[in-house]
Amino acid sequence: MSGAKSRTSWRKPLMGVYIGTIVLFMQAPALSLLISSFSADKYFHFPFAQLTWRWYLEMVESGGIQTSVGNSLLTALVVTIPATILGFWGALAFARFKWKGRSLYQKFLLLPIFFPQMVLALAQLLLCKQLQINTSWISAGLSHLVWLLPIVTMVIAIQVYGFDRTMEEAAYDLGASSWQVYREVTLPVLMPGLVSGALFAFLLSWSDFELSLFLQGVDQMLPVYIYGKMTGGFSPTAPALSATIYLLSAAALFVPFWILTRGEQ
Amino acid sequence: MDSTLTHPGGATVSGTGAAKRPKKQSWANRNPGPLTALPTVFMLLLFFVAPLVLVVFYSFQEPNAFEITNVLSLDNYRDFIGEGYYATLLWSVLIAVVTTVVAFLLAYPCAYGMVKVFPKMNMWITLLLVMPIFVTSNIRLFGWTLILLKGGYLSFLTSWIPGMEEVEFLYNFPAIIMGMVYIYFPFMLFPLVLGLEMVDNTVVEAAIDLGANRWQAFKEVELPMAAAGVFIGGLLVFVLSLGAMVEAQVLGGNVVTPFADDIHHAFSYQQNWPLGSALSVILLGITVVLIVMVMRYVDLDKLLGTRAKLG
Hints:
The complex is a heterodimer.
Chain A: H1 2-36, H2 54-61, H3 63-96, H4 102-114, H5 117-130, H6 137-161, H7 165-173, H8 178-207, H9 210-215, H10 222-231, H11 237-264
Helix pairs in contact in A: 1-11, 3-6, 3-8, 4-6, 6-8, 7-8, 8-11
Chain B: H1 3-6, H2 33-59, H3 75-82, H4 85-117, H5 122-130, H6 137-148, H7 153-158, H8 173-197, H9 201-209, H10 214-225, H11 227-242, H12 246-250, H13 259-268, H14 273-295, H15 300-310
Helix pairs in contact in B: 2-14, 3-14, 4-8, 4-11, 8-11, 8-15, 9-10, 11-14, 13-14
């Protein structure tokens, strides 16, 4: 066992540095966007000649941004509700109940996650054209829902796998009715999974670009709006808007997890 | 009565033939599995399978057709060979292979460190590393262009090296690979973390006590136990980068045209739905074959269930 001891002595700092480097790599764009958003220069060149807050003010006042933020928020909120409910049932079928077609169902459910989003979007667009349905935030939302429902289901399924069934049995033995058990035991225990599932649904819909690009129709979504800003030459509001979205998304993910884990201790 | 528990609004539970069970029976034992799966399966059939079936039909239409007719044609598949679309597919396969290998080599030690060295911080590191998925990839790639372009942050850093001018790091093959690895890294990392959580430390220690060196213990014990995570992670990254388009556009300029770009082009600019459909079918065919091959070796219950027991 002395071998194992001497391994751990250098293992920790080495691993710490390595993971730290990877974290830096994954978060580098956030730093880049944040710093760039304060440049007052017309053309991007680091170091900047002047600094400014101006882009953040322009961002808040821009009508195009307000509309697309509205569209994206509406779609994400509307998608989150069915995604969480269906995901919850789907997760029970995935992880809890033993039934004949389960293994096939599990694999079928994985398919949309593995499919190239752009091909899926084009196929859905083709279906809309075939059925002469006008694309709008509703078609975009349906497209989001189909793609993220399997992910939400899996997130909740992980929680369902860990569910201790003896707790339900105990509640029954103490005389609780089925509805009481469901409401007082099953749902509260699975609640962290449901919260993460809803959170994932909201954020995945909110940040989706490729499905929205083809299926949004007249209702421009925020990621598509930003794409237009980015590709239409360097626009100084783009980094400010991007940095804001990045930080908001990070907060939307970290704060609930922080609250959830604080509750556990 | 019990049916209202699992299915508010659905009263067809009698179909399970459990009507005469005693009242104290747990609602879960009535086997509502198929019923709870139904809404999700229905959604997927309607908005996932149906569009893809339509694409398959279109791919056998004559080029430039805008409706499904009885005249079937293989012209679009001939164009795949004749018009050189297979070459872009090969480029995309090459990019996907390199991306998958690099992502694995970077992610494995990271996942190992998270599971085995810093298990208490695992959740927070996972959040930090997986969190970028929830920000539109365009935005993040935009951040990278500002790092990599001439006059950007990286060229500022390298200009401190004596004799170095400002350099353009964008618009080349390595930039595309870096962008792809960056975008798909979380999809490799998370399954690897799940896979490594299935590795029983005591078995690895036992192998080492029995005289295995670290490499042997890794190759003969650790990797096979974590195999499900490796398979899923590899499959995800390969398949997603095979169908990727934006990374090559934003970071690569036009040095490489990904296959997905051809599909997009056929649908949007050429307005040739049958050709775009045929190219899609080829891409989806590869995807489905890979998924079926890999999923045979993966026990989903075990991969996802282990995490639950730990957490």
